[in-house]
């Protein structure tokens, strides 16, 4: 029977870590914990004290200060694996988890899956030919050396990167390796992990290479496993269910998504909200149960595609797209209207144009067939508009012969807003908050291909909470960003409150704002 050594990378929430360790080891498995060396020392002591008497729990002997995108994450994983293999000789598999992962099947079911399939579970796609990275930095992750943390040392990161490019200091990938890429989360057989550790000791050249690659946790194990293990012994997938928004941020699961998670063909899920106490309790009970029968409709794959429609973002903290050339101009004003219900934003923009003469375009970066003037071909496709956003915006101002312009933007396009506000023009943001009925959510799920028109109601019931929560999360991200001058009109507020917000947004008299909103059909579906 399979015995799992869980490798837990964590940095916060000691109570949840203790519960997770006790839950997973109660089923007879093992856990090796790496608690980020830069995290709270009291939290680490709390975890060690609470688990001191658990013989199935061990801690990494050498803790590392971890940073997103750095080699430190891989080093922490290797340190934690080494102590696990020494301490738990009976472990047949090594399963990498984060502190906010939870099981979505029973332990009995998980062990049976591993017993029945003598393979390694790891996403492993060709780095250069696959479309795993759809936007942002790609080859440059490897061919240049990255010494700084992009998040905490942004200026140094890009200065070093641009300097190497200007000097032509490119480097080659190790000749005998086919570079692969995939999710950080994997489950490997013990024999495979031992081969990786032996390779690490023998190939110092490869280690030097990976230490200065960018985001190596998505390439290191993925490349070495493919190099060391026959392809027929690799299942190119992860056993951990995770989804990313189209801003590249992990989707968080909440209390009302228990049934959705169980229906996915995975053993664990990431990320479970720290506030989802009811969901955690139910999943904990499930893991300890004897349940072996699960109906896996697996609509999570459609949800994943829906939420990553613009691809995993390869460069989450990219240089602002208007910083590399001329700006829009200090004398110009950009009015951004963001709303999930496109027809509502379009109605409001049309009313604004009618009553104030303010020119603009609708969902220029979201809708393939947005109505745009002829701008010499740059407007011909959504892909072109997105790639040449800076030039497009300047051409629109010139085409309309105006210094004031309004655009509509889907809330999922949060990545554009910091760039808009960073420009030296005046940027104003108005969010339109709408109510979402079950009928609307169902129609949206069908329109974007999450479910079929004739799907059973049980499938809709599993999908709709995730769609609703994604809408809520997008709105929450916009508010949390605290953009200067952010304003909101809402279907749930009275017309007077909405008029005040709209008046401030447009810099028009309150009477004009009331006139714009004086329609009964604005929020009608």
3D structure, described in words:
The structure is a single chain. With 525 residues, this protein is of the alpha/beta class. 41% of the residues lie in helices and 13% in strands. The chain is built from 20 helices and 17 strands. The strands form five sheets. It has a five-stranded mixed sheet with strand order 3-2-1-4-9, with helices on both faces. Strands 14-15-13-16-17 form a five-stranded parallel sheet, sandwiched between helices. The chain has a three-stranded mixed sheet with strand order 5-12-11. The radius of gyration is 25 Å and the shape is globular.
Uncertain runs:
310-326
Give me the secondary-structure category: alpha/beta
**Beta-strand level of the residues, as a percent range?**
5-15%
Count of beta strands: 17
Radius of gyration: 25 Å
Mean pLDDT: 87
Secondary-structure blueprint of this entry?
Elements: E1 4-10, H1 14-25, E2 30-35, H2 41-51, E3 57-59, H3 72-87, E4 93-98, E5 102-103, H4 107-116, E6 120-121, E7 125-126, H5 140-143, H6 154-167, E8 180-181, E9 187-189, H7 190-202, H8 204-211, H9 220-228, E10 234-235, E11 240-241, H10 258-262, E12 268-269, H11 277-288, H12 300-307, E13 333-338, H13 342-356, E14 359-361, H14 382-387, H15 389-400, E15 404-409, H16 417-422, E16 426-433, H17 438-447, H18 457-480, E17 487-490, H19 495-506, H20 510-517
Helix pairs in contact: 1-2, 3-7, 7-9, 13-20, 17-18, 19-20
């Amino acid at each position: 029977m399979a015995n799992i050594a869980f490798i837990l990378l964590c940095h916060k929430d000691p109570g949840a870590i203790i519960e997770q360790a006790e839950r997973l080891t109660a089923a007879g498995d093992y856990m090796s914990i790496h608690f980020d060396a830069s995290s709270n020392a009291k939290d680490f002591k709390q975890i060690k004290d609470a688990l001191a008497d658990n013989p199935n729990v061990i801690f990494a002997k050498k803790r590392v200060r971890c940073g997103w995108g750095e080699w430190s994450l891989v080093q922490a994983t290797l340190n934690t694996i080494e102590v696990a293999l020494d301490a738990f000789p009976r472990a047949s598999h090594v399963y990498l988890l984060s502190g906010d992962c939870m099981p979505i099947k029973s332990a009995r079911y998980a062990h049976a899956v591993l017993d029945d399939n003598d393979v390694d579970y790891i996403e492993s796609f060709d780095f250069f030919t696959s479309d795993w990275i759809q936007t942002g930095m790609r080859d440059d992750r490897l061919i240049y050396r990255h010494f700084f943390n992009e998040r905490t040392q942004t200026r140094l990161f890009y200065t070093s990167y641009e300097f190497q490019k200007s000097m032509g200091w490119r480097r080659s990938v190790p000749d005998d390796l086919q570079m692969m890429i995939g999710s950080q989360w994997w489950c490997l057989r013990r024999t495979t992990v031992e081969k990786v550790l032996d390779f690490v000791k023998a190939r110092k050249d490869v280690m030097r290479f990976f230490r200065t690659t960018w985001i190596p946790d998505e390439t290191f194990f993925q490349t070495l496993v493919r190099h060391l293990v026959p392809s027929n012994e690799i299942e190119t997938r992860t056993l951990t269910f995770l989804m990313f928004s189209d801003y590249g941020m992990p989707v968080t699961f909440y209390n009302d998504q228990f049934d959705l998670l169980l229906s996915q063909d995975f053993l664990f899920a990431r990320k479970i909200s720290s506030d989802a106490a009811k969901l955690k309790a139910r999943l904990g009970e499930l893991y300890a149960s004897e349940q072996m029968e699960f109906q896996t409709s697996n609509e999570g794959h459609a949800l994943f595609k829906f939420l990553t429609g613009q691809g995993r973002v390869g460069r989450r903290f990219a240089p602002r797209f208007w910083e590399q050339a001329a700006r829009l101009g200090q004398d110009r004003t950009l009015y951004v209207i963001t709303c999930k219900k496109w027809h509502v934003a379009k109605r409001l923009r049309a009313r604004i144009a009618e009553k104030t003469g303010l020119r603009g375009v609708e969902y220029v970066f979201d809708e393939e067939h947005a109505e745009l003037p002829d701008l010499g071909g740059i407007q011909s496709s959504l892909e072109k508009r997105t790639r040449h956003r800076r030039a497009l915006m300047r051409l629109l101002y010139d085409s309309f012969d105006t210094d004031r312009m309004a655009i509509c933007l889907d809330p999922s396009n949060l990545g554009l807003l910091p760039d808009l506000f960073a420009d030296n023009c005046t940027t104003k943001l108005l969010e339109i908050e709408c109510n979402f009925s079950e009928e609307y959510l169902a129609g949206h799920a069908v329109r974007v291909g999450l479910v079929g028109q004739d799907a059973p109601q049980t499938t809709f019931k599993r999908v709709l909470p995730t769609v609703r929560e994604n809408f809520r999360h997008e709105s929450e991200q916009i508010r949390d960003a605290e953009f200067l001058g952010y304003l909101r009109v809402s279907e749930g507020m009275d017309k007077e409150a909405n008029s005040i917000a709209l008046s401030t947004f447009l810099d028009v008299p309150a009477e004009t704002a009331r006139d714009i909103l004086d329609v009964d059909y604005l929020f009608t579906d």
